[in-house]
Amino acid sequence: MQLALFIIVAIFTIGGALGVVATRNVVHAALFLLLSLLGAAGAYLLLFAEFLALVQVLIYGGAVTIVVLFAVMLTRSSEYPRITDNRQWPLGLITALVLSSVLGAAFWLTPADADAERKAPVFTDLASSLFTKWALPFEIASLVLLVALIGAIIIARQQNVVVTDDTSPEGED
Amino acid sequence: MPLAFLIPVFSFAACPLIILFQRWLPLRGAPLAILAIAGGFVVWILATVGFLAASADHPACDVSPITHALTCHFTTTWFDAGVPSEIITDSIHLNWGMLIDPLTIVLLGLITFVALGVQLYSLEYMKGDPRFGWYYAWQALFVAAMLTLALADNFLLLYIAWELVGLCSYLLIGFWFENPGPREAAKKAFVVTRIGDVGLLVGILLLWVNVGSFSMTEAFAAAASGQLSDGVITASAILLLLGAMGKSAQFPFHVWLPDAMEGPTPVSALIHAATMVIAGVYLVARAYPIFAASPEALMVVASIGLVTALGAATIALVSTDLKRILAYSTVSHLGLMMLSLGALGWTAAVFHLMAHGFAKALLFLGAGSVMHGVGAHGDVDIRRVGGLRRAMPLTAAAFSIGALSLGGIPILSGFWSKDEILLAVSHNLPVIFIVLTMLTVFLSALYMARAMFVVFFGTQGEDSHHAHESPILMTGVLSILAVLAIGFGWIAFNWPGAFDGFGTFVFYDHAEGFHFNVVLGVLSILLAVGAFALAWLVYVRRTLSIQSWRARFAPVLRVVENRYYVDETYQWVIDRVVLTVSAALAFFDRAVVNDVGINGPADVVRKAGIALRLHVTGHVYTYALVVALGVIALAIFWWLRSV
Amino acid sequence: MMANFDQVSLLLLVLVPLAGAVLTMFLPKDRPRDAWQFAIFVAAISFVISVVVFLRYDYAAAGVQFQREYAWIGHPLNISLHLGLNGIGAPLVLLNGIVLLGAVLISQTITRRTRDFFVLLLALGAGVYGVFIVRDLFFLFFFYELAVLPMYLLIGVWGSSTDFGTFLRTKEYGAMKLMLVLVAGSVLIWIGILALYVASSQAGEPTFNIDKLAQLQQNGAVSRITELWVFPLFAVGFGILAGLWPFHTWSPDGHVAAPTGVSMLHAGVLMKLGAFGIIQVGMLLTPQGAEVWMPVLIGLGTVNVIYGAISALSQNDLKYVIGYSSVSHMGYVLMGIATLHPVGLAGAVLQMFSHGIMTALMFAMVGAIYERAHIRDSFILNGLIKRMGTTTFFFAIAGLASLGLPGLSGFIAEFMVFTGAFRTYLPLAVLGVIGAAITAVYILRLLARSFFGEADPQWEHLTDASPVEKGVGGAFVVILIAVGVWPAPLLNVINTGVASALSVF
Amino acid sequence: MVPLLYFQLLGAALFGIGLYGALARRSAVLIILSIELMLNAVNINLIAAASYLNGIGRFAAFDGQIIAIFVITVAAAEVGLAFAIILRMYRNRGTINVDEINILKW
Amino acid sequence: METGLTTNLHLLTPEFALTALAFLVFTVDLFLPERSKEWLAGLAAASLLAVIAVALLMRPDQSAELYGGLMVVDGFGLFFKIFFCAIGLGIIALSVEYGRDRLQHRGEFYGLLLFSILGMNLLAMSRELLTAYISLELLSFSLYVLVAYGLREARSNEAGIKYIIIGVLSSAIMLYGLSNIYAALGTTYFTEIAADLAAPGDASPVLWVGIALLVVGLGFKLSAVPFHMWAPDAYEGAPLPVTAYLAIGSKAAAFALTLRLFAEAIVPAAARWDEWQLVIAVLAAITMLAGNLVALAQRNLKRLMAYSSIGHVGYALAGIAVLGSDFALAAKGVIFYLVVYAVTNLVVFAGITAYYNREGKDNIADLAGMADRQPFVAAAIAIGLFSLAGLPIFAGFTAKFYLFAAVADGGMLWLAGVAIFTSLVSLYYYLQVMRQMYIERPAHAEHNVAAHQEHAEHDNIHQHAAHDEPDPPIPPLQRPSILLTATMGIGLLVVVWLGIYPAPLLTLIETASAAILPLG
Fold first, then answer.
1. Average model confidence (pLDDT) across chain B
2. ipTM for the assembly
3. What pTM was estimated for this model as a whole?
4. Interior/surface letters B392-419, b for 16+ CB within 10 angstroms, e for the rest
């Protein structure tokens, strides 16, 4: 039963991911991403991490995907279906395969802990851990978000800009 | 006698004084040089008197166990090089030292006397030259160096003086450096003798390596005692001989001497006839204990001497330039001296050295007088002058005495010395040597007669119409030298009561009194007189024509007239070999060592940089790919290393 | 008073030119003459100090004198500014004092960015002094690099390019090559120094102090294998600066491109740093390696002698002749060092001194000619003696010294080198003597071609050396003769240094 | 019974796929999306380890889950900022194709 | 765990102050008119000075843990805190004129700068992977924005995109490594990692791979080869002060983290587990080689400095590689090198900025004739470059000597050899810059020289000496701003001072490195 659920979740996750990297359409890619993220959220649920699943769905499934779609629309990159893969994709494929094999093999070869069984955290414990033990990273993370916000505003704000396309004077040598 | 060191010091001091203050000194400082050498002459007399009076109980003197002559030794420390450490014990301790023995004494006499004469003579001869002061400066330096050479008690000091006389020779040959002739001749003289000097220096160092000292006496003692192996002795003797050959213009290093006649004639007289060129002979004579220990070396000395003597005599016979005739004559006579040394005729060689020195100085100064008289400053072609005896009687007389003396006419000094040589050769060398020596003697008389007759007797030459006798200063010097050319030989005799003969004073190993071989003597008299007679017939009376002879031996003549093509060979070697090698090496240095060896690696590095930079393609996915590859490499490496 | 002076004399030796360089920076920019005069002032002070230091060096007492130690970086590197002068450094300090003053005086002709020029030149001088007087490898290397550092700009900015017709040797190229090749040498040195430091560290006494390292070496703290590979690093690294074949090509090109004063200082003194380093570091600290490698070094030295001389033979440019002649003469130094023989080594040190003066004189005179004729081609120049008699005279003396004429300093030195080499490597010594003969050929050819003879009308306008040039040239000639006639004052000092340098074998 | 290993392998696979996307895609937007996949792989890994191993050895208090929260936060911020820059690029140059974004190279 | 949470928060005063002041900058920015934005630079500088002052008051010889060991306030952290703030001051000095003429949103610029310095400070104190990561992200995010700050410049945009893509990718990799370590050990505290590593037992592949991935993340931040490729682009595209900041600040911060991570998490286990030394050594070697070799082929000054800085990272990494043998020596070497590198680079970048502000050019060839036009700036750059090349009497020499001696002493003489050799290579390209500044003439002066050469053509051999050439008139540039001049002046003094007498600084560094000295 658990295994079946896991397989379903895995198929969603992996399938969505494959969709993201394989589709020719950017909008589709965003939607595939959503699919994959939801699959991941399912995996969190299987791991009894309901809170994380929730966060995943809210932040990723909601916010991130929407941001992505905005980006896609603003850059009208959906009009460029030819934007697919670059010339080095075979190399990329091999590299990715090798790397995930290495990572996988590392897990595979690490002896499993016999006592390992899924446990569910208590929400309140989690919360108190987050705000006591991890308070400092939490505060810093808030600053990170702030910086990202300010930066995004500064950079993306519409201006009547004159682009100085000072193409590198390097020359084609 | 210890004051003998003053003999060169006067002149050494004169040189820089003249250079620095010539502008303010009377006669540009010439009197300073003359005074210096005159002082040297006086000191020499005093030293000689002292030496003659000294005996083995003089604190500085001893009878040398090798030469068995009284030898006096005065030294003072010059410098030390290297301090012996525990492992390597040798270092060198150098002295300024004088070694005074009969050889030194007579040589000093020759040098001081001729130099004094020549410098006096030059007052007139060089008058009006724009570099009159410099001339005397170099003269002084030369004399000083030459005297040092004669006095030196160790090889290093000898080498130093040896090089300095070479330098002065260079400066004085090239004195009129505006003209290409003197300039090139000077360079040639320096370079050729320098090649010989390589041998000399190597020889000196070889001796040092085996003896452990530069001291001559120690080296001689080692050679005589058999402390040195035969190989070392022969090698060092040959190497010293190389130096001697360069300086004394022995074949094949003789080429510079005729060219050196480009210098002022008094210079030729002093340096290239009487003094510097005999340094080589002197060296062999001085280092005779080493040569004597090696029969092979002596044979080489004799052979070189003979080849030189004969070859130069033939060339002298066909030369047309007065000074060149004299120059080849010098070469030839130097060869005879070498031959004599090689034939164990040590005393004969020294004796001939002296006799030749006076006579040849006389001849050169006479030639200078001729040039002065006819107003020539370069070459004097004997075919263009003639019958000068009327215009220049004193010069003619003096020159003739010199020529007769060197030609070997009896009772003149040249006869006696030459006779001694013949004696030695006939005693100690194979018969072919004496035959060829006789031939040389004949040729020698013949070319001397030719020069004398053509220039002073016979018909008036085209260049000699305005000839006039030289000033009294010059002729005076000539006269004194002429007296010596006549009479010097007489000191060879045993004068009962006064003097036991040259051979009892200047000798190697054992004193020998005067002796005379009738057969040889008569033979040489016949040859000499015959030669003069022949020349008289050919050049004065013109009753004999040599044209048919010239025609018959035209090819031989051409070879001889071209001086056996030795100069050409040298020229070819220098142009084709040395300069080509040098240019090739310079190109190699630039193109291979530098452009490939040095620039190459730099270029490789730079090109590597240029090639490597292409890895930053500008595409962000490449960057990502490389990062990923790095991840894989790192992960796998780390993992494998950790297992 | 003098005792107090001894306490600080070595420090002053470095500080005076360094402070001079710093102060020169603050001189007004547009008054070149002031900069020159100030530089003369500084160089003269340092000259006086160097003379005093040399005279105060007590050769009877030998060893390292005037020692002072200033702590610098503590444990574990234990670097200290340890000053001290030995018998090999003392004559070279004197040499630097002389040549630096001469070079500054000669540089009166620098009119462009004069101030900057003297800043760099004085810094260079300070670096050279430093190398000769420190007893710590770090500082030795420090000063060594300091002496190399200004060269790029000195040549690049104030130098001159040479057009050979078929190709061009630009000053930029010369400067860059000189700099890179020399620093490449110091790369090797640096590695060698680190290797010794590691050895000392493993022995439990980490230090860069030369004397302590030598002590450790004597105690066997440095393994034979280490010495075997470290010595070549020092020999080649320092050798590069000494013009070691086949790494010598920076020298002709660099010296030719450099302005006169810099050529004087560089060929005259800087090349000696390399030889000094081989003795002071290579031989002292890795004697076992030195013994094994010396045959190679003397072989290369001999190649230097012959190769340099033959190459000089076919050069047309006056400065190139001198440049290659330096290569040739430094060969004698290398030969002398490689003999490991007291006489040969003393000869090498004396040759350093002698060659320093001689080559500086030659560069000065050629500089004077170039200044006036704007050309250095010996085929075009002729009859210089007519218009530039004094210059010719000085050049000729320097030339004669370089061909080893007795009575001038070069002879004594070469002769001693030969003596040492004869004892140890006879065939090579013979080659060395032959090299000296070849020197005569090119020097005499040059003299005959360019200096003697009838002058072209185009050289009518030339004027003889200026009073300053005459003064410098005259002084150098006097030194050449004095050393040639009476080398004892120098040799007394050198002998003690050589004895201690060889005591480790 | 699903072992921990499965989740870890799922994470590894996801990481690989994300990496492939980052290496192979041309659109800057898609590259960022692919990297988001990689971050998700991290999260799966963290949460799985926390969930399975809590209480064993040093594992305590489900720290892995907390870390995952931070990862999600940072990932979101990254996306926002990255898209802002991409947007600026698009406005300036009219393209977000990384093949064409190569003025700067070598 | 919860104990000590609130007891010693005062130790974080500098950080809180910095946060508050950064907010203040943002706030004031809203009210300042466009022409008065320079005041913000002053405000930011004042904030940094205040932080330095506070930090100076703290005891460097004591160490106190915060938040249950997430952070520690110790000599190391304090040293780097002051160091980073000083760097920040320098960058502000570089930015004022440049920002006024060429940047928009200057207020936010300084605010972001402060935030990034905050991130660096926190990084230097972090003792736990997540905290370190988040601090690093604070720094990185600020830098992403700053690099892309040249809003109108295509190059700046491109640099931003590349930087953020590779940055995010690396952070993903690093996080994966973190997750692996967590999965293997259950902890992310440095000291606990060290304890587990040192404990006997079989090592798990997950852990090794995790650490490898973590090192990759660091490698990106350090721009160690092969994770360096973003660096040249980011440096070239970024606004000049930001380039300087990337070269100096971000590197220094990354090394601070690396040092503490290795010191506290890895070195203590070195006895049992030392192959990381070889890994780092190899990374160091290829970093030096690649950085310096590629720099040879550069024509853009900023790009050149990027490759040059990659080379320098290689040297410092070499020091990291030998942390396991003589920690104190190696750590001191690295820190000393970092300080010297920072000061020297600051001088060079100040010089480049001063020139760029007047000329608007940053190619190497554009520097031609600079020595005549801005003599002081040229001298400053020249001295800086000499120092970077490792020539005495400048700090670079001393620092390199110290560092390489440490490397050699650590048993990696070969690595020291590679480092020394690549220093030689670096000299070549530094000299190329020098050549442009001092020897070459600007293009518009060329025709004079050409005419002169033609004049000399009639000789078959001619030499054109420098002093023959009449100086073609080159208009001098307007003097650099006082701030830049002062930066260069102070920087040069420090460079020379450290080159001649580094002992005082080394004493300070001694204290800093003693704080992280592993006990094991």
1. 84
2. 0.89
3. 0.90
4. bebbbbbbbbbbbbbbbbeebbbbbbbb
